[in-house]
Amino acid sequence: MPIAKQTAALLDAARDIVRSLPADAVLLLTETDMDWDDVYAHLKGCRVLIAAESRELTEKLHQNVDLDVIDLDPEPVPARERLSLALLKAVNTNHLKPGAHVVVLYNGIAAPEDLPEPIDSISLIHLSEHLEQLTLQDLRQLNTNIPVDTLRTVIHLATEIGREGREGKAVGTILVVGDHRKVLSMSSSLNFNPFKGYKVEERDLKDRKVREAIKDIAQLDGAIIIDSDAVAIAACMSLNAEKKGTAMSKGFGTRHLAAAAISRKTSAIAVCVSQSSGTVRVYQNGEEVMHIEPMNRPLVWQAPRLEAFDPDPEHDEDDSNDK
Fold first, then answer.
1. Has residue 22 got a pLDDT over 60?
2. How far apart are CA 291 and CA 299, in angstroms?
3. How far, CA to CA in Å, does 127 sit from each of 70, 91, 130, 164, 317?
4. Residue 307, pLDDT above cutoff 50
5. C-beta of residue 71 within 8 angstroms of C-beta of residue 85
6. Separation between Cα atoms, residue 179 and residue 225, nearest integer Å
7. Which SS3 state, helix, strand or coil, does residue 137 take?
8. Mean per-residue pLDDT over the chain, rounded
9. Cβ-based neighbours of 12, under 8 Å, separated by 6 or more
10. Which residues lie below 8 Å from residue 120, measured CB to CB, with a gap of 6+?
11. Distance CA 74, CA 127 (A)
């Protein structure tokens, strides 16, 4: 269908922004099919990515081999959330680099379903800032009784440990959050408990000073156990949950296996930080439900890749310590 006058003006504005910054791409979130030859004429010289609201429109767009289409799950979510999901998917599928600058065109004003508006809004997104924050939807997908704020705090702490290390050295560790009594019953102490004797408020991860202290403690062997209120309970703990039957991707060693196993035998969520790469993997019910690449890039959720556990991997990543 022919593009509206206001859409043409916004396309021209997007092209000018790309040229003047420069920006890396234009992402167009559309509710309708468009005259793509006309769209590309306005965006001449720009890299164009397209994401559609419906599965039907996405499939139709895929039939045009000249279009670079981003697949989105056909869920009814607000425009701003769909924008975030499209950017995340574009990064995960290597259409965009995590630090890219993107001009986004979309319909930001609600309209009757029978009168969809192709384009009415334009935004400039710096992915290094936009992707840094975890969305509530990402965390709610974990389907757990652990409060979202607690999960957000623990996972953000894990990504900081993976990205920053400590004193110039990479750090690998496990943070186990929730169901702490059962987790403790399946654990044994490797060393003294650095949290013993401290008041609750002195162990509360919502306090920045406590989080900084835990970054130091994470250098010690063993897992850190945290309750559902984001209060640190114990550290330097060996996780002894039965590992047999736990799914694990090839190449991972005892740390990741221990994290997966404890999440399988309890209702806790285990967050494992890889010492070699800084990657954070989140385990629930014995499975990897998401992983995050922190390092010097923004946080990026990626789909899990599970395979049968290989008890004798060729490369035992970085897990010489059974945490």
1. yes
2. 9
3. 16, 9, 5, 20, 30
4. no
5. no
6. 9
7. helix
8. 82
9. 42
10. 6, 10, 106, 107, 108, 109
11. 23
Q: Is the pLDDT of residue 317 over 90?
A: no
133-180: per-residue pLDDT in tens?
A: 545 556 767 778 899 889 989 988 998 898 888 877 889 999 999 999
Model confidence band, residue 109 (pLDDT cutoffs 50, 70, 90): low
Distance in angstroms (rounded) separating the CA atoms of residues 13 and 117: 18
Residue 74 is encoded by which pair of tokens? 């056909």
**What domains sit in the chain, N to C, each tagged with a CATH number?**
5-130 (3.40.1380.20), 136-302 (3.40.1700.10)
Angle, helices 208-217 vs 148-164, to 10°: value is 50
Q: What is the pLDDT of residue 292?
A: 75
What's the rounded Cα separation, in Å, for the pair 248 and 258? Answer: 10
Cα–Cα dist 314/109, whole Å = 54
From residue 258, alpha-carbon distances to 115, 172, 183, 243 in Å are: 53, 13, 12, 7
Record the pTM.
0.57
What is the spatial distance between Cα 249 and Cα 127, in angstroms, rounded to a whole number? 29
Q: Name which of 243, 222, 245, 242 is nearest 176 in CA terms.
A: 222
Q: Decide which of 143 and 191 is more confident.
A: 191
Residue 11's alpha-carbon distances to 5, 92, 144, 202, in angstroms, are: 10, 26, 43, 54
The token pair that represents 146 in the structure block: 């652990």
pLDDT at 12 over 70: yes
Residue 177 confidence (pLDDT) = 97
- The conformation of residue 98, written as its DSSP 8-state character, comes to T
The rounded Cα 94 to chain-centroid distance in angstroms is 15
